[in-house]
Design a protein that fits this description.
By secondary structure, the chain is mostly helical. The protein has a domain of 82 residues. Helix content is 81%, strand content 0%. The chain is elongated, with a radius of gyration of 22 Å.
């Protein structure tokens, strides 16, 4: 039988490859973009510098995805604590329900949260 810690560690280790891939993409975009900007200024090609700035801009989505992935890994780690303290399956289910309620704040529409609209349970 697999323990909760083993399952959580496996999920986090499965997220490592995409995380490293996103880090690699971010580094490649930034280095290539900066190199292109420097090269274009040295040779007097101003419009090529715009392409370099565009490459630097491509690093931001990779940064955002990496941040989201790390937050998900942290939430998985936080679930390990209540699971390790539970003695019975009912106790574990109760702890998980409470933890998910505090992490995900049900009743708040994620799209509305992005728009800045307060929903039910968001402190109206």
């Amino acid at each position: 039988m697999r323990t909760a810690e083993h399952v959580i560690n496996q999920a986090i280790s499965e997220n490592r490859l995409p995380e490293y891939l996103l880090y690699g993409m971010s580094i490649a975009f930034v280095i290539t973009g900066v190199g292109l900007i420097v090269w274009s200024f040295v040779h007097g090609f101003v419009w090529t510098a715009v392409a370099g700035a565009g490459l630097n801009g491509l690093a931001w989505p990779a940064f955002a995805q990496t941040k989201r992935l790390r937050q998900e890994n942290l939430m998985l780690r936080m679930l390990e604590l209540p699971l390790s303290r539970a003695r019975t399956s009912e106790e574990a289910a109760t702890m998980l329900t409470e933890r998910f309620a505090s992490l995900f704040k049900p009743g708040v529409d994620p799209a509305a949260k992005k728009r800045g609209v307060k929903g039910k349970g968001a402190g109206e």
